[in-house]
Amino acid sequence: MCSKYAPIAVSDTLSYGTVAVALAGQSEAQTTCSCYELTFTNTAVKGKKMIVQAINTGADLGGDHFDIAIPGGGLGIFDGCTRQFSVAESIFGQRYGGVSAANQCSKLPALMRAGCNWRFTWFKNADNPALTYKPVTCPAALTARTGCIRKDAPATVPKPTSKPVTTTKKPASKPTTTKKTTSTKKPTSTKKPAALAKKWSQCGGKGWTGPTKCVAGSTCKKGNAYYSQCL
Fold first, then answer.
1. CA–CA distance, 47 with 193 (Å, rounded to integer)
2. For burial by CB atoms within 10 Å, which of 46, 63, 90, 202 has the most?
3. In the chain, pLDDT over 70 holds for what percent of residues?
4. Quick one: residue 127, left, alpha or beta (phi over 0 = left, psi -120 to 50 = alpha)?
């Protein structure tokens, strides 16, 4: 599980996140990498919305079930976190349910703390709220984090409302001649500046081939041998 898959608040009433999902009558191939708008209908988050991308499924999920990936929300069946970060299982709280208070988030590995805090701020520590949902086009902010875009995803580029106008210039009555000239001036450099990783994006780690420097205002911090992030 990538730490960058944690939920992020877009506004007081909207967040982005990733989920494991099981929908009645739909296979994993039909749901994986699809996005859904969730509208919570009870508890402290009633009326708030999340746009989530499906990155997993599971036999333990019920019909029409969205399992939000929240750091500190419980290790669940498969624990990779203690080995990835070389930490004790106890810092993650209950295996099913996770930590019980916001001050426990500070005990988690640095890359997981922001997502853990989200649970107690934006999500108000809601306990399995009911919801309604509908399929939506994935926001670029989500697909940039997961790297997954379905081939059957709806087009996001609007079609032109009118046909483009083209003009054809008539040739001159007499052909013109072009005199060849030579120049000793050296061509200007066309080398593009090195790409910079955006804030919160990956900037290093074993096997990483992307940008290793961060945009202004953030610094590339090593989380472990496999992942560094602009913080």
1. 45
2. 202
3. 81
4. beta
Give the Cα separation of 187 and 78 in Å (integer).
58
**DSSP secondary-structure letter at 60?**
T
pLDDT per residue as tens digits for the range 126-148: 999 999 999 999 999 999 999 99
Q: Cα separation of 69 and 71, whole Å?
A: 7
Lookup result for tokens 């008539």: 170
**How open is the CA angle 99-230-125, to the nearest 5 degrees?**
20
Is the distance from CB of 84 to CB of 223 less than 8 angstroms? no
Interval 102-125: pLDDT, tens: 999 999 999 999 999 999 999 999
From CA 156, how far away is CA 140, in angstroms rounded?
10
Q: Does residue 74 come out as left (phi exceeding 0), alpha (psi in the -120 to 50 range) or beta?
A: left
Q: Determine how β-strand 49-56 pairs with β-strand 14-22.
A: parallel
pLDDT of residue 167 exceeding 60: no
DSSP 106: G
Q: Which of 73, 206, 201, 225 is nearest to 146 (CA)?
A: 201
The residue among 58, 56, 14 whose CA lies nearest residue 37 is 14
107 SS3 class: helix
Q: How buried is residue 99: exposed, middle or buried, by Cβ count under 10 Å (0-12/13-18/19+)?
A: buried
